[in-house]
Amino acid sequence: MAKLELRGIRKEFGEVTALEGLSLEVGSGEFVSLLGPSGCGKTTALRIVAGFERPTGGELLVNDQDVTHVPANRRNMGMVFQAYSLFPNMTAKQNVEFGLRVRGADRAERHRRASELLELVGLSARADRYPHQLSGGQQQRVALARALAIQPAVLLLDEPLSALDAKVRVQLREEIKRIQTQLGITTLYVTHDQEEALSVSDRVVVMSEGRLEQVGVPADIYRNPRTPFVAEFVGTMNRFDGRVEGPDAVAIGSTGTRIPVLEPHGRGVGEPVLVLIRPESVGLEELPNGAAPAGGLMEATVLLHTFLGAVTRMGLESPVGTLIADLPSVRALTLSPGTRVGIRIDPSGVRLLSP
């Protein structure tokens, strides 16, 4: 296990700045994901850690040793790419042995280590198969075993699941987390898939345009976004311009509809705010024909359903504009488009940011 530290890492490609002073610590044995859209700099950061790119500025330390200018082949990093990058003329076992052979390990040691790792990734029975005889998920397991064979100080994964179908992605990400936990290896994982990052990481680093937007445990990133970008990128969010009505309420929309809040925001009455509401915090009650909403409910009309399995996402037309609500499907399917409903906002799911 190793501790990894990036100190003010900058990277410029001509006039384009890919990283603007990225600073991050990854603890020994920690699983950290770099999450962000294409072009945010996350893969560039990973390639700098691997030694495939040289930073324009800043320092990279492993166990407090400066490795900024150490060549990639001397950094003891294990890398798994989006493309499987297996040698087509080698069996699965020979692919896993490759790094050990380059390092001069004897035949017995190579066979022992490769057998252990193929067992770890569940491919012992396919050790003698060539890449074209394996599925995409199996090939990526071989690539993972090959990266682990050299016993790297840090495991680096660059969107390793993006080429796989949805079901295999879920299975393999769970396997990656199981193996990482079992081995206790320090891991840096790059993805643009928020579900992947939130499900496997000890901490998530959200990036945008070469900058770090927020770092935190997955639950905190989701529940307490600190910037509008994080709020929009991680999960789905209802977003409104509003103003503070007091310590426990804000007004949104042209109608000035009051929304309760629990967050101790410390802002003055009348101050403009960005009001963020998660879809699961929007509760619905069907209104009988001709009945007016009561008890603090806001009237709305169901516009559409998007079936997502156990949850159905609903579009609602309300006095404050379009709202999105997530309901259990067994409940949502009883509220057909055109149904009048009353909306109740759970104040624990309301977040306020500066505009």
Please tell me about this protein's structure.
Helices cover 25% and strands 35% of the residues. The protein has 355 residues and is of the alpha+beta class. A six-stranded mixed sheet has the order 6-7-8-3-9-10, sandwiched between helices. Strands 13-12-11-14-20 form a five-stranded antiparallel sheet, with no helix packed on it. Helix 2 runs parallel beside helix 4 (136-149). The longest helix is centred in the middle third of the chain and has 18 residues, at 166-183. It is elongated, with a radius of gyration of 25 Å.
Question: What is this structure's SSE topology?
Answer:
Layout: E1 4-13, E2 16-26, E3 31-35, H1 42-50, E4 57-62, E5 65-66, E6 77-80, H2 92-102, H3 107-120, H4 136-149, E7 154-158, H5 166-183, E8 186-191, H6 194-200, E9 203-208, E10 211-216, H7 218-223, H8 228-233, E11 238-246, E12 249-252, E13 257-260, E14 272-277, E15 282-286, E16 298-307, E17 311-318, E18 321-328, H9 329-332, E19 340-345, E20 350-353
Parallel strand pairs: 3-8, 3-9, 6-7, 7-8
Antiparallel strand pairs: 1-2, 1-4, 4-5, 9-10, 11-12, 11-14, 12-13, 14-20, 15-19, 16-17, 16-19, 17-18
Helix pairs in contact: 2-3, 2-4, 3-4
Based on CA inertia axes, which overall geometry fits? elongated
Order of helices and strands: EEEHEEEHHHEHEHEEHHEEEEEEEEHEE
Strand order of the largest sheet: 6-7-8-3-9-10
Strand content: 35-45%
Structural class: alpha+beta
- How many H/I helices? 9
Query: What's the rounded overall pLDDT mean?
Result: 92
Enumerate the spans where pLDDT stays under 50 for 5 or more consecutive residues.
none
Radius of gyration: 25 Å
Helix content: 25-40%
N-to-C span: 42 Å
**Secondary structure: number of strands:** 20
Tell me the major beta sheet.
Answer: 6 strands, mixed
